[in-house]
Structures are given as C-alpha cells and as structure tokens.
Amino acid sequence: MPLVMVWTLAACNGNKSVNNKTVFVGPTKVNCVGVGPMKCLQIRYHPDEEWKMYYQDIDGFSHQEGVEYELLVEEYVIPNPPADGSNKGMKLIRIVNQAEAANPFEEGLANTSWRLKEWGDPADLTEVPVDVEVTMEFEEERVAGSAGCNRYFSSYTASGGTLSLGPAGATRKMCPPEIMEVEDKFLKDLESLTGYELEQGQLILTTEAGMAWRLERQ
C-alpha cells in the first residue's frame, strides 16, 4: 500500500520533483541574450555570492526596479524543457523581505555604461532614433562612448548628484545627415551637463539650460 500511495502522489504532481529554497533577487535587470536580446533578473542563493543572470521569469513574482528581494521559492523540474532552456523553474511562495537598494551612485558614476534613449524638455522628451547609438561609458575619471557616428572622450567629476565634464574630443568620420544631426547636438550639449540621478533604474542627466537626458543601462 505505501508504494501505491507514493506512485499516485508522483502522478498527481506531473512527475515534477520540487524543492523549496531561498533566493535573493537584485535591484536591476540586466541586458542578456536568450532567444534574442532581453532583460534578465540577477539572482543568488547566498548574500555573499556574486550575482548571476536568470533567463526565466519566477512564476507569480513581479520585479520592481531599484528594490532588492529575498524570496522563498519552489524550485521544480520542467519535464520537457526547450532545447536551449533550463530544465528547472521557480515559483514564488512568498516574499520574505524587500528593501530599496542603496543608491549605486553615492560614490559617483565610475564603472557604469549607458545608452541615451530620450532627451530634451523634461516635460516632453524626444526619443533618440533607434538606429542611432549614443552611449556613455564612465571610468574612474574619464567618460567615452559613441556620439552616434564618432567616438568621443572627456574627463569628468561626479559626486552627490553633481556632474562636471571637461572639454570633449572626438574622431572625425562622416555618417548620413540624420545621424550627424543627433551627434552634433549631443557633442554640443555634452559639456553643459550639470547633474545626475537614478530614477527607477535609469540614469537621468540634466544640463545648464534645464534640459534632461534619459539613459538606460547597458
């Protein structure tokens, strides 16, 4: 009789073995590539571990940018996973703890990389054309990236939400007029940047004239 009962329970569970465990979820999703470009959760199973990318959703869990989570989840085996997918999934049991993450810019912008998405009047931002890549890659005292067509570089200082850039240099190749139009505006306004803040996982930069740039992390 006990053997029959065990078999019946396994059949009812669809042959899925389950394991409850604690998982920590990071405050921001990161760019990753699965079937195509996508955003992945960052997870770890112990606070001292390095974050690693998780390419699936956690069933029943909705992630909010800027919030760190401690979750109790049910980890289960997927009987017939896709050829390029994991054979395990996770389902939320409950949120054990959640808290706003510390502002990662308290020590400045060093070692972060961003792509410009919108800019202009803060009340009515204009989207940067999707085929024009404008980026900002912050090192310890230097910022560089793509201005749309050419590579640029400059020195910078950042602290407590205040940003100051030195004179910028750039390469000199030519691109189609629509790209050069974006680049000329970007390089013209670059040295007038005065402030920065983190807003729902995005970087918001402000200029002397009160204009705003919205960038997403790369």
Walk me through this protein's architecture.
The protein is mainly beta. It is built from 2 helices and 16 strands. The strands form 2 sheets. Strands 7, 8, 9, 10, 11, 12, 13, 14, 15 and 16 form a 10-stranded antiparallel beta sheet that branches. Strands 1, 2, 3, 4, 5 and 6 form a 6-stranded antiparallel beta sheet that branches. Strand 9 and strand 10 (142-146) form a beta hairpin. It is elongated and about 60 Å long. 17% of the residues are buried. Residues 1-15 have low confidence and may be disordered.
Q: How do the strands and helices of this protein lay out in sequence?
A:
Blueprint: H1 2-12, E1 18-25, E2 30-33, E3 37-44, E4 52-54, E5 67-77, E6 88-100, E7 112-120, E8 126-127, E9 135-138, E10 142-146, E11 151-159, E12 162-165, E13 169-170, H2 177-190, E14 193-199, E15 202-207, E16 212-217
Antiparallel strand pairs: 1-3, 1-5, 2-3, 3-4, 5-6, 7-8, 7-9, 7-16, 9-10, 10-11, 11-12, 11-13, 14-15, 15-16
What structural keywords apply?
mainly beta; 16 strands; elongated; disordered N terminus; six-stranded antiparallel β-sheet; 218 residues; ten-stranded antiparallel β-sheet
The string of secondary-structure elements, in order, is: HEEEEEEEEEEEEEHEEE
What fraction, in percent, of the residue positions are helical? Answer: 10-25%
How does the overall form come out from the CA principal axes?
Answer: elongated
- Which parts are unreliable, with pLDDT below 50 for 5 consecutive residues or more? 1-15
Structural class: mainly beta
Largest sheet: 10 strands, antiparallel
**On the 0-100 scale, what is the average pLDDT?**
86
* Alpha carbon gap, first and last residue: 58 Å
- Counting H and I runs of at least 4 residues, what is the number of helices? 2
Count of DSSP strands: 16
> Which range does the strand content fall in?
over 45%
Rg (C-alpha, Å): 23 Å
